[in-house]
């Protein structure tokens, strides 16, 4: 399989439109070895050649242009065979509406709870019915779903945090899932977990059994946003395990021996974006990469 990071930033991107943090200003001023990053999304190409998008960010139009090999050769063709959703958050779903020009119903994979959210709370699916339509495939936690004859995804639970727009409905469930993507031709396995609320031995074993992992790098410490005075919510309140805080993810990820480890969904405020920061140094010395747009992995 071929995997490409289309957006390594979290919701808001880098820079975020209303943000004047050190990182956002550095990008605008073109300094400190920091560059523009799109919002969270990856694409994976099956051995048969079909591309699948995992999460549809608001930056989708530019992101799909990164899939050069997938561009239409005829007057109308769809560069992607399907869109897989790991949750119903705005940053992972808004791009669906940009795909409304599709000549065929959009093939979307997601859990039942995500389908409900995108029907009732943020009614993208209902809206798309008046355009291209949607062909929905359900993902169930614990199940393995074939995307093609040679590419499977295994679905596992990551967090119980509902998107803000669904909170008033108080629906409990596995709101955030992760995916283990398996290529039957090479036997290679990638695990994608952009919304990691906590680590368990079981999850760490899944990571260790993967050849590459793309993991939530949203926040450096639990109180990143509190310290900046821009939120009263901690990283953990938001369903993101911080990297460096006590019992954060960094220590555990650094212990993994087998997989290539790459951080994704990195918030614009995270100091690891800065090439010369102490925090970036700590991450790299732990054998972990900071994801960037366009990074391509052949497995
Ligand atoms: C998240 O990753 O926690 C969400 O995307 C936050 C948001 O932008 O609403
Ligand atoms: Mn997000
Ligand atoms: Zn910022």
From TrEMBL:
Name of encoding gene: pqqB
Function (record text): May be involved in the transport of PQQ or its precursor to the periplasm.
Family statement: Belongs to the PqqB family.
Domain Metallo-beta-lactamase: 51-266
Superkingdom, natural source: Bacteria
Pathway: Cofactor biosynthesis; pyrroloquinoline quinone biosynthesis
Pfam families: Lactamase_B_2
Keywords: PQQ biosynthesis, Transport
GO biological process: pyrroloquinoline quinone biosynthetic process
UniProt name for this protein: Coenzyme PQQ synthesis protein B
HAMAP family in alphabetical order: PQQ_syn_PqqB
């Amino acid at each position: 399989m071929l995997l490409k990071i289309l957006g390594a930033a979290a919701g808001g991107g880098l820079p975020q439109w209303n943000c004047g943090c050190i990182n956002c200003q550095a990008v605008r001023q073109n300094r400190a070895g920091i560059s523009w990053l799109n919002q969270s999304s990856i694409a994976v190409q099956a051995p048969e050649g079909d591309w699948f998008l995992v999460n549809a960010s608001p930056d989708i139009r530019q992101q799909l242009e990164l899939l050069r090999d997938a561009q239409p050769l005829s007057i109308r063709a769809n560069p992607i065979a399907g869109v897989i959703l790991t949750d119903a958050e705005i940053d992972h779903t808004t791009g669906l509406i940009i795909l409304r020009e599709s000549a065929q119903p959009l093939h979307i994979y997601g859990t039942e709870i995500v389908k409900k959210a995108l029907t009732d709370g943020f009614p993208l699916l209902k809206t798309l019915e008046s355009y291209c339509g949607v062909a929905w495939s359900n993902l169930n936690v614990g199940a393995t779903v074939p995307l093609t004859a040679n590419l499977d995804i295994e679905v596992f639970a990551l967090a119980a945090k509902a998107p803000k727009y669904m909170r008033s409905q108080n629906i409990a469930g596995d709101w955030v899932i992760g995916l283990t993507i398996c290529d039957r031709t090479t036997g290679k396995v990638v695990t994608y977990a952009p919304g990691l609320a906590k680590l368990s031995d079981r999850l760490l074993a899944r990571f260790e059994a993967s050849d590459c992992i793309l993991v939530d790098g949203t926040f450096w410490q639990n109180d990143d946003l509190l310290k900046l005075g821009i939120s009263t919510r901690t990283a953990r309140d938001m369903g993101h395990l911080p990297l460096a805080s006590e019992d954060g993810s960094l220590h555990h990820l650094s212990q993994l021996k087998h997989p290539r480890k790459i951080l994704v969904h990195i918030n614009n405020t995270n100091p690891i974006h800065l090439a010369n920061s102490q925090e970036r140094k700590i991450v790299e010395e732990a054998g972990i990469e900071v994801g960037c747009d366009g990074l391509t992995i052949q497995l």
